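worker-03 picked up job from queue 'complexes'. Input manifest follows; two sequence lines, order preserved.
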Amino acid sequence: MTSDKKLEEIKEKSKETANKLFGKKPKEVEEELERESTLGSPDNLITPDNKEE
Amino acid sequence: MKATHLDAINRYDEYRKTARNLAKEDLPDYLKKVTKLERVDQKALVAFKTWQSVPERTVNWDWNFATAYCRRYPKAFDLSVWYGNTLCSLTLGRPTYKGTSMRMDFIEKSPMNCPISGDVFAISLLAYENYGRLIGAEYLRLIEPMNDKLIKYYTSVDVGFSHRKAKQGNPHYLVKKL
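worker-03 finished. Artifact:
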């Protein structure tokens, strides 16, 4: 399991990310996020992996 | 099933739970009180059935494979986002081959009215970032991002993604250092 120190770092970064993601957005971005219903595709799971990544 | 595979399922299940719990904890108050982050389990699949007959639904993806997928690929990350007892979105992704990046491969939002509809992509992103960090990935990839306006937003300084063009049969994606 993750060490306590690493978990604390992850918690901090999670807070930072949340502040950015849920901060005020331009109106047109809010409208797009409301309107879009999907992202990606199940086909992405069957695309062969790059074995170097 | 081999003991090592079962061990991996259980180990990564802990990471998945932690990633969802941390994301829930950091939601703004207006979301935290009403939002639940869970697995794509039987309860989610029962709720998903109601989506399948909605004329407004834009895809015909069948999420019933998600549970089996996560047992086959123990490092995959499944996520359902709920507003109370209303299923708002389903998400699935897995790390790259060597685990250097976590991928958010696809999301579907409820085709019915969901009061937090504008927030579900962000909720999923937050949980995926947490999971990526927990499993030691260096990057988060958002595979086949949405339209140009949203790509522009996600690549803005605040959000911090870069755009990578499609290459050798692989779709384009947004990537962010974790």
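worker-03 released lock.
Chain B is about 35% helix and 20% strand.
The first strand of chain B starts at residue 35 and ends at 38.
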